[in-house]
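Researcher: I've been going back and forth with a colleague about how Tight adherence protein C might be arranged in three dimensions. Neither of us has a model we trust, so I'd like an independent prediction. The organism is Nocardioides psychrotolerans, in case that matters for your notes. Sequence below.
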Amino acid sequence: MTMLLWGVMLGGLAGAGLVLVVARARVIGRPQLATRVLPYVRDLPQVGRTPALRVASTSPTSAAAGVFGPVLRSLADGVERVLGGSASVRRRMQRAAIDKSVHDFRVEQVLWGLTGFALVAAYGVLKTLTSPGGEVTLVVLCAIGFALGVIARDNHLSGQVKARERRILAEFPTIAEMLALAVAAGESPVAALDRVVGRSGGELSADLARVLAAVRTGQPVSTAFDDLAATSGLSLVSRFAQGIAVAVERGTPLAEVLHAQAADVREAGRRELIEVAARKEILMMVPVVFLVLPITILFAFWPGVVGLDLTTP
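Model: Here is an independent structure prediction for Tight adherence protein C. You can compare it with whatever you and your colleague have in mind.
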């Protein structure tokens, strides 16, 4: 077979593959009927839980599950059986505001594990090419790489939770003061919440927006804030939500409570900053001892050394 025929065959295969990719991309990008209809019929009985009307996710995890679905699902089920703790995962995903199911998270863990497996396998292949042998060790290392990838995704979820809670703590005093000012100006708690949510952005504002949406759909204000207190992993936010719920139920003054909670958060932040500085005192001395002090000594003694060199016969 001549080079011309090889070129024609490869060009034809490349063109056919490109056509298939473009056609599939157009089908994937087209909005589904369920995506357009479900927001309008979600309140009907059993419609939100009907498998045929579930909104398709556009995340990379769902795309990978759509392509390699059976294999990834079986691996995710195996990870779930080995690790367990679906309640803890669901709780942390709620605290991190991740709108995914536990199974999707397990699929992500499998993908992270496969990434670790691939990295270790690539290293093993390169090592085998230079020095053959040690296949059993390579298999064990690949298994360890898969396990480390799975554990790394779980640790990353915990890191996401902590990062979001730090952002909430940073936003809390401002949000509480804005609510207190709105309530003190004569607005009701729901109107003050609407005003604050409309003029702020952030993690805590998103949580309050969900509370406001629940109130507007007919849920009592106290119940909506009780749900926020139950799902939040921060005691300060829980006390904030419970304080608003109690104030709405019993008619107690709300502005003073919000001012006091904002002051408590600011004081807790100052105490945490002092504690962090005390714990990192040695690390704070590292640039002083190894950078500033040698430069100071050099500037103090270098002119004398130069003068001795000049005066020495």
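Researcher: What would you highlight for our discussion?
Model: I'd start with this: Residues 43-56 have pLDDT under 50 and may be disordered. After that, consider the following. The radius of gyration is 30 Å.
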